[in-house]
Amino acid sequence: MDYADPQDSGYGDDDSTPSSLHPDRFDHDHISKLEVFSQDLQRAISNSFPRPNTSYISVHVLLLRWAEDDLNVQDELTSLKEVFENQYHFATEQWDIPSQNPTRALQNKLYDFQNCHQSEDELLIVYYGGHGDPDRRGRSIWAAYMIFSVHTPNLLTNFRNKKSDSPTLNWSSLQHLLENAIPHVLIILDCCYAANAARDTSDGTRKELLVACGRENPTLGVGIRSFTSAIVEELQAFGRSAFTVSMLYSRLVTMRWRLAYTPVHAVLSEHGGHSIELAPLSALTQTGKSSDENDSGFDEDMMDISTPEARVAPNTRVLLLVSISDDAAYDIAEWKKWLVTQAPVEITKVEVKVEAVFKSHSTMLVTSIPIVAWDCLPNRAAYRFIGFVKSGNLDQKHLDVERDNERLAATISTQQGGMRPVKKQLQLLESGTLSTSEQLSKERDAARDSLSEIQQSMKATKSNLLAQQELAAQRQVLLARKEQE
């Protein structure tokens, strides 16, 4: 959890240093057809949101820190413990790593922790806050004090508490105890170079890793801008709602104003599957008492009725490059229509946009999707992250189309507004409130004529809009066919 300024990436003094600006080969991997991406996207969206009528019978949390702690992480651990216990009703325990034989001591603790829970309906959460650093083989090392690092040698000389003989342990050699556990497991690490713990995978039940930073990045220490502080705040913000770890990550990753480095979410289970779900448990469940009203463990009275889609960061999305085989241009034009008219509910409940399409060695589709969907996509070489964005394509042509659509929508809205007083007048006339006899008949006929004209105008406007949309779709199909020829 130490602070360090990141080093610039790219070509350095040595020409052998790779750069992301220049590809190392011309041909990139691609999927055979667009249907593969559609299926992956559908599964990703489905796996990223909570499912109805699912829960854990119990959740057990183990909070780890060093007994000799020079970062003073205790206050943040206390805050995290209070949220897990008081808001979520999770069984929570803090355990301090001793300086004497730390590896053996933590190994025994983790073995006892996972051995006491042997059900796939249970969830184990393990959190660590402290120093971290990779060794020369890239394994994750935890330390009680600041130690010399191959990544930040200049920075470490500025710390008075720096000790080269700090107690350390190899977390990479212990994590397998959790990866092989029967219950589902969530590992949360707030330390420097934390993503080095994501090197191993498990073939058992769901295992996920949520960490403060990447493999080559440090992170901030204790304070308002720390990763742990952000997690506490977001856990409180979810309140009584059910959410997934992917949803939590989607909110953390957008906190650029607060977090100095991008958090990392990794799935350690080889088979993938649904993201781990978190929600407040009934207070009776963790005490071992039965609850006739709620056998599932979830406190249904505490659940938020808002939709899961409303509880993810809506303003920031992922721009994704999808490489598809050469004959996909026509498919993309059809896919854009499919997104609007026939897409499954898993896709229609979130916004998926086609931002651009290019011809290359393969067809290159640029699309923007929610962070939660990107987070749960399978790791295919044909899918490449471009960046986080907060708008659609700002190209002038796209802006013109958007303005035309806005004008048509405003026209329809104005016409609908003009219908209200005419309808009201017609109702009053028919009830005889305004006048009687021949005058009543004339005014009623005039009101009906006015209402009919407005309705015909609205119908023509809507027909014009549909015709423009259909014409644009036909043009895209024709262009795609010409490019194939």
Kindly describe this structure.
The chain is α/β, with parallel strands linked by helices and 485 residues long. Helices cover 36% and strands 18% of the residues. It is built from twelve helices and 15 strands. It has helices at 34-48, 74-87, 102-115, 153-156, 176-179, 227-238, 245-252, 329-341, 345-348, 371-375, 396-431, 437-484; strands spanning 58-66, 91-97, 122-129, 131-134, 140-143, 168-170, 184-190, 207-211, 243-244, 264-267, 277-278, 317-324, 353-359, 363-370, 383-389. Strands 2-1-3-7-8-10 form a six-stranded mixed beta sheet, with helices on both faces. It is elongated.
Q: Which descriptor suits the 3D outline?
A: elongated
The helix/strand order is: HEHEHEEEHEHEEHEHEEEHHEEHEHH
- In terms of quaternary structure, what is this? single chain
Rg computed from alpha carbons, rounded to a whole number of angstroms = 29 Å
Strand content: 15-25%
DSSP summary: helix tally: 12
Strand order of the largest sheet: 2-1-3-7-8-10
Low-confidence stretches are: 2-18, 150-163, 287-306
Give the terminus-to-terminus CA distance.
Answer: 57 Å
Largest sheet: 6 strands, mixed
The overall average pLDDT, rounded, is 76
What is the number of beta strands? 15
Structural class designation: alpha/beta
Helix fraction bin: 25-40%
